[in-house]
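User: My collaborator sent over this chain with a note saying "see what the structure looks like." That's all I know about it. Can you take a look?
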Amino acid sequence: MKNVTDSFVSLGHWPSAGSFGFNTDIFSTNLINLSVVLGVLIFFGKGVLSDLLDNRKRRILNTIRNSEELRGGAIEQLEKARARLRKVEMEADQFRVNGYSEIEREKLNLINSTSKTLEQLENYKNETIQFEQQRAINQVRQRVFQQALRGALGTLNSCLNNELHLRTISANIGMLLSMKEITD
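Assistant: Without extra context I'll predict from the sequence alone. Here is the result:
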């Protein structure tokens, strides 16, 4: 390969030194073209490239800053959630303890209420038994009285003959008449 300076030196040795022509050596012309393009790009593109890199750097820093802020917010929310969880767990334990004591209290109230109801039912049962016993006693007395009355009537009817029966009726009629005269 030829050196870049050789290509400039060789310009003077061309047969048509005063005219314009094409250099047919591809390697030497490509190096010149590339160096010119790179020089132009560096000269004009330096500001654009640095602006692009600065913008990219700012965006990355902003993204990192936002990520840090979001991370801090997330940590804060996590701590708040943990505190709420602890509070809810304590309240749940309190409700559980209160629930158990409330259940025991309700259980005792139910037992007392049931005991009172059973006592009242026992009293009603005893009153009903006494009432039924009294009624049965009254019915037995009434039947005994009716049987005694029938027996007495039967004895009277068998002991009375017609004449005694007529005399008793006449005496009773006489008494009724005398009572009527007194009331008049």
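A starting point for your reply to your collaborator: The radius of gyration is 68 Å.
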